[in-house]
Amino acid sequence: MTGTGEDDKPEVEETSVWKLDSNVRSQILKSIGYCSFYILVSSMMVFTNKALTYSYGFSSTTVLLLCQMVITAILLPLVKSTGLISFEKFDFRRALQVTPISLFYCLNGACGLMALKSMSVPSYTLIKRLAPLFTISMEYTVLNKKSSTGVILAVCTMVVGTLIASQDDSKSAVSGWAFGFASCVLQALYLALVKKSGAQSGLNTWGVLFYHSVLSVPILSALVLLLGELEAFLSFDQWFSRAFQIVFVCSLFAGFLLNYALFLCTERTSPTSTVVSGHVKALAQTVIGFFTFEGADTSFWY
To answer: pTM of the full predicted structure?
Structure first.
């Protein structure tokens, strides 16, 4: 009896360890999948927006964000009616919980597009490497989550490299760097709020995205009027260009996919994982950027 029990015990422990390892592997694979999806859509978004601003001279960047939010607010209920997705009906109480996300997202998006308009793609990628530093700080402040020493040291190394490389960028305007820096701070703040509000409001990813898109429309409309972009948008001379129309429509749907990928990755992993995922694509994005849209100075520091 005793001998049989001793023989069975290691087998039970081995089975438990195997199940634990299997669950961990499954979670890692899912996290990689979420991050990969975000990386793919984010890369597409950067070059699509750069094509609009550089190739066609489209300067109404805030209007572009507004159009992307309007498309998202229209598409989600339509897709919901098919039964493919589900989310709660609009509720004022939940709207108040999501409002800070929309506010900081709109400000971040406006700053990001303004930075991309006056910077090369590699330079834009460079300054966005500052984002993890602020994200770690926001995770601690908003989510009470402390990063490990190794993660902090790795992020500090990226920041030092960014500061060194930025001294050799002779093409990007100072205003571009200023907008890019502001975008990093705002991105860190709204990602931390996405993680927090998803748990507090009880909404799934589609629900948070729907509330966010609806709430963003009036905020972005106010920004459009404040920045005086409406007149430039209406008088733009490329509206009848078939090539521009294709790129513009692609940018609208890419914006819809990017918002979903970003919220999904943040809720299922963490704000820091989402930001770091954005840097995984940096090498390929930078190499492509060297040969498109005027590139950047191909010097040692890059």
So the answer is: 0.72
